[in-house]
Amino acid sequence: MKLEDKMSRALxxxxxxxxxxxxxxxxxxxxAVTTTGNDCSLKCAHCNxxxxxxxxxxxxxxxxxxxxxxxxxxxxxxxxxxxQVPIINHIKDIEVLKNKGxxxxxxxxxxxxxxxxxxxxxxDVASFDILLNDETIKNxxxxxxxxxxxxxxxxxxxxxxxxxxxxxxxIDSGQIKGEYDALEYLETQNPDSITFIVLIPTKGTEFExxxxxxxxxxxxxxxxxxxxxxxIHINLGCMRPRGKYRKQLDKMAILSGINNIVMPxxxxxxxxxxxxxxxxxxxxxxxx
Length: 288
Description:
TIM Barrel, alpha/beta
């Protein structure tokens, strides 16, 4: 089937289940927080701790919220050598935030069941990266883990809290490797939503000079997801290349049955208006 035909089919599926509704998320009220400062043990090939620099240290939250209208938090941090984000070290801080009424989305990584059980009472949702290609895990994260470790962690998480699986398209050098395997696996898990992000070749990382995945390949995967999951929300998250790439990707995603785009390009907004979508704007992280 040609890509244009897949897009048309995917859009029809979306409209038959969700009508003309589309969400544009501008997460101004969600504060991204790191529990490890700028430190990350893994120094992954696609990130190298770069994105921690744009997050607020958990010890500086009080000062930050004095000057911003915050109602939710995305809590993450650098990973330990076993792939776990050491959020549990700040469980008391997270408990305080939860008791104040804030919504909390947490990236926990490969956290063990004992700690998941403890933290789950204080978060609303966990965002979990689905990596089901052993070569990719080795190439990108450089840890001694296999796809079965990710499957195990995901299924443990599901026992205790709502989980939104994230799939980073092209995470291994811009190549498409385990993304379709991830979708096939998720068919057995009945997620209530899926978030796609796209590799950004980031300065100061091993992947600085590689090309992001072809836009057509990204759209193929989004279409496949819509056809496999006709009744759930499919999000295009904030992590994706900017410039001309984002303009084209966002526009094509609108025409491929996406439900929610974070920080949409002007072209996405125009396309949504062209096909007479009912636009809803939200000010939180897309999984909240």
